[in-house]
Protein: DNA 3'-5' helicase
Amino acid sequence: MTDSSLSVALSELTEAQSVAVAWRDGPMFVLAGPGSGKTRVLTTRVAKLLADTPDRSFRVLALTFTNKAADEMSARVTALVPEQERRALIGTFHSFCMQMLQQHGSHIGINPDFAIYSLDVDRQEILRDAIKQAGLRPDDVRLLSTIDKLKSQLIQPAGSARYFRDPSDGSRVEQVYAAYEAALTQANALDFGSLIAQAHRLVTAFPGIAGRYRKTYAYWMFDEFQDTTDGQYRLIRALAGEDFRNVFAVADDDQIIYQWNGASYQQIQRFRADFSPQELQLPTNYRCPPAIVSVANRLVVHNLQRTTAKQPLEAGKTSLKYPDEQHICVLRYSTDDVEAASIAEGIAKIDRAQWGEVAVLARTRYMLEKLQSALTQKQVNAVISQRRDDFRSPQFLWLAAVLRQGLRPLDRRALEILTGAFNRWFGTDARVDLIVTATELTERSLLDEWAVAVKAGLGDDVNGNALVDLAATFAKEPARFRQFVDAVLAMIPAQDDEASDIAEDRAAWSDLVRSIGKTIGRDAPLEQFLQELAIRSKEAPVGSNTVTLMTIHGAKGKEFDHVYVVGLAEDILPSFQSLKAGENSAEMEEERRNCFVAITRAREWLCLSYADNYRGWNKQPSRFLLEMGFSLPDQPSQ
Ligand SMILES: Nc1ncnc2c1ncn2[C@@H]1O[C@H](COP(=O)(O)OP(=O)(O)OP(=O)(O)O)[C@@H](O)[C@H]1O
Structure:
């Protein structure tokens, strides 16, 4: 596309969207409902800022919630202003902090080739060792989630005891937290929480670095601002200092659904208080048919914690596939099993070519698993789509662990993973403890010693031996890792079954390599490749004829032609915990927002369902159905 693509994109904006896109200097807060074109506004604004300043060297920073969303935004900006796209840094908070620490982390003792521990098992392992070495209680490993909470509020180990009512609890946590951080430092590793916390530490300790960022990135944009955590917000504040004003945040206070993770209406209020932004509302919804817009409005007005002057959603979609009365249905069933079977039967009747445009959303994973087996019985392809922190097949687990071992020859955790994966793949029985002991005697590297151990069990297996040789060659020249990867990929058996772990991992791998290549270039060194790999989900892209099953949290920012929301019963949506917290509790309001997010994913058709009985317990229909104004069926349909 060319410069005229931007003109076309600009001409397609509504008046309100155009005002947001044309906003130049100063703080702006765009309060926008679901389907109001937030993504369109952000990408067009990035493109316009760049196109308007072709001879300027400043860059634009745009942060969003997931790497997928960032990839999509990047692709759209590239299409609009191909020659200027390199002046945009589009990523997530975590990827932005990762880059900041690669470039400047050495000021606070972080080497740029740090490892990222994204897996809880790895983190527990490191904590277990740290606890052992410090002579603390082995069961203190369960304090990891407490440590995460402290870290998300940017509380450092020293002095963390004072945040606990019981001084002995506090001092125990402080010791464990300190031991954990020391172990991470020793391993030159960071976890997700550290990325934000250390970036914050960096810019507060070295304000000059924050100043450089303000100069380089003259305009900042934040998508999904409602889900910013306390730590992320404080990082923005520290980076902005007292004078930086070009902050443009897009948010919907009716879509705060990550409260458990630190998101809060408070962050929106803090932004208003700290930056005094100009405010703009985008209430027109271009995604959903009017009937859905109207029930969404009826539902969300029951929440009190939202912007007082928030305008209700307006229906802006003009071309509709079905007559108005057929855009929503409400179904009642006798049990969860019958609900799953009947919804699956309904989906099986939809033309197979459209299955990729069908989503089933649920509050928890339990109903999704039921749906998946019901759909499988009807021969409908369906996947539970959710973030995956690691590969599943031994082949790809081995490949990733060998890369990690090549970069960090002393990394014992990498040795454990590659040994276990290879044993599963080839039926060998190499033992990590024996390999480690052998290295002490022979002074060979862990990987070389693993090769000796595993070859003894491989016999004349040609593929197995060839892979071991490839790994040994790679370990001598880790910089040539791309050749190693290509050679291994060629030896991983192809699979006919698309749902097999190997086929899914292969699809995920090629998607990851493409996305990482776009972010850091195709010649980036191994350490950067592994850092990018660590922060990304290893989930395979959903196939085109496949129904997507996801939790409501996972569906944020997505849209589908046909949306089924199942399990609309008290105790489920709203959850048991929110019922316990009470009618007007923050928890209940969050559940209502969950329901609001779920129903506003539908482009054409919405089916809401509930059963009288889940897991053997009788349940009442969800209060949200009544709040939306539905009259409920007298009898279950089956
Ligand atoms: N001006 C417009 N005219 C017609 N359609 C539009 C317009 N703006 C956005 N849309 C369409 O509305 C839908 C929603 O847009 P988008 O994905 O940007 O929404 P969003 O505001 O990010 O939603 P959510 O908050 O639910 O993630 C898309 O299909 C988009 O193409």
The radius of gyration is 26 Å. The mean pLDDT is 94.
